[in-house]
Amino acid sequence: MSEACRLVFSFSTFPDLLGRPTVPGTKDGLIKAIGPADAIQKMFSEETFEERIDCSGKCILPGLVDAHTHPVWAGERVHEFAMKLAGATYMDIHRAGGGINFTVEHTRQASEEELFCSFQERLQRMMRAGTTLVECKSGYGLNLETELKMLRVIERARRQLPIGISATYCGAHSVPKGKTAPEAADEIINSHLPKLKELGRSGEIHVDNIDVFCEKGVFDLSSTRRILQSGKEMGLQINFHGDELHPMKAAELGAELGAQAISHLEEVSDEGIVAMAMARCSAVLLPTTAYMLRLKQPRARKMLDEGVIVALGSDFNPNAYCFSMPVVMHLACVNMRMSMPEALAAATINAAYALGKSDTHGSLEVGKQGDLIIINSSRWEHLIYQFGGHHELIEYVVAKGKVIYKK
Ligand SMILES: N=CN[C@@H](CCC(=O)O)C(=O)O
Ligand SMILES: [Zn+2]
């Protein structure tokens, strides 16, 4: 287990926690104190609170962090689920113009308002499932106009909604029709990234991460390298899709470039795993995708044994329609052979690390953001054990010290 993992548990089961005292200047949404109820009671006896929650017999856990999602899109793909059940592979559908390309066509046609409304509903479903920080990608536009439309939608949610958002530019999610991968990479580097830089400077759109789908038949290793390198030079964290369907040496590339995270990794090499551990590059594993597409499972045990920081993501997208990190943790335990403490760490502090936010998010510590969930059980493991039972178990979701969902 990584060093980051251990932090979670030293703070997760105290009987009481009080936040947001109504003292001028202290409504910052950060955790003020953690400890036994009577000690906390004494410490804050003079203060008044907006809300007190009696957590006797319950568990307080850090808010869940979803390290990989594609939540802004239009156009249903439920018909593809039927095709996959009948034996079509992800790439069969992609090559036939379905998959990402289908979603791109519909997302290009959708209005910003329409995209925002469906995105907002999706975020609300994530919050109800305990997610307080989520990574959100663009990537169903591919052209500058639609990529910017998606990023504006993400920016609006970042400003208006209580859930934390880490925004990712994923203009290299697929190669647009009529272009080769190197041509698409040129356009991204010479036109998309300079525009993002300008909008970042003027404060219109804030982007945290840069992503590329590095895959055979999508972006090759050298185009991936060029795009990620350019993104890094403008201050973005590298966080990309690699080694999913074919071994691409994406892990080796990510480690070399100083990537913060690489997602998928079903086909990662042994050398890639070692390189990621050495570079402190986290692995964002996506149990829903391997399950949905019947792929071989990523080698979570090998990664953990080699010291890789393993994080989890729902990969919510029209291919893997899952909002729930408790379900993701359950799948990680059963299909990837992770223990429940490893899965919880992967869905909290390590996922926060994958987003470059483990100093402020992902564990319950004084001075960190007051993001937490309260579950109606004295054993936290029920959140993972009760497959699909999280709606009954999660009583409160708190973000920045404010209740954002109450059952
Ligand atoms: N693999 C690439 N991207 C997504 C799928 C996106 C889609 O199929 O729309 C993923 O992470 O699973
Ligand atoms: Zn993805």
What does this 3D model show about the protein?
With 407 residues, the protein is of the alpha/beta class. It folds into two domains: 101 residues, Urease, subunit C, domain 1 (Roll), CATH 2.30.40.10; 257 residues, Metal-dependent hydrolases (TIM Barrel), CATH 3.20.20. It has an eight-stranded parallel sheet with strand order 2-3-4-5-6-7-8-9. Helix 7 links the parallel strand 3 and strand 4. Bound molecules: N-(iminomethyl)-L-glutamic acid (NIG) and zinc ion. N-(iminomethyl)-L-glutamic acid binds next to helix 5. Pathway: Amino-acid degradation; L-histidine degradation into L-glutamate; N-formimidoyl-L-glutamate from L-histidine: step 3/3.
Task: Map the helices and strands.
Elements: H1 3-9, H2 37-43, E1 59-62, E2 64-66, H3 78-85, H4 90-95, H5 100-109, H6 112-128, E3 131-137, H7 144-160, E4 164-172, H8 181-201, E5 209-214, H9 221-233, E6 237-242, H10 250-257, E7 261-264, H11 270-279, E8 282-285, H12 287-292, H13 300-306, E9 310-312, H14 325-336, H15 340-346, H16 349-354, E10 372-375, H17 382-385, H18 390-393, E11 394-399, E12 402-406
Parallel strand pairs: 2-3, 3-4, 4-5, 5-6, 6-7, 7-8, 8-9
Antiparallel strand pairs: 1-10, 10-11, 11-12
Helix pairs in contact: 1-15, 6-7, 8-9, 10-11, 14-15
The structure holds N-(iminomethyl)-L-glutamic acid (NIG) and zinc ion.
Zinc ion binds at residues 68, 70, 241, 263, 315.
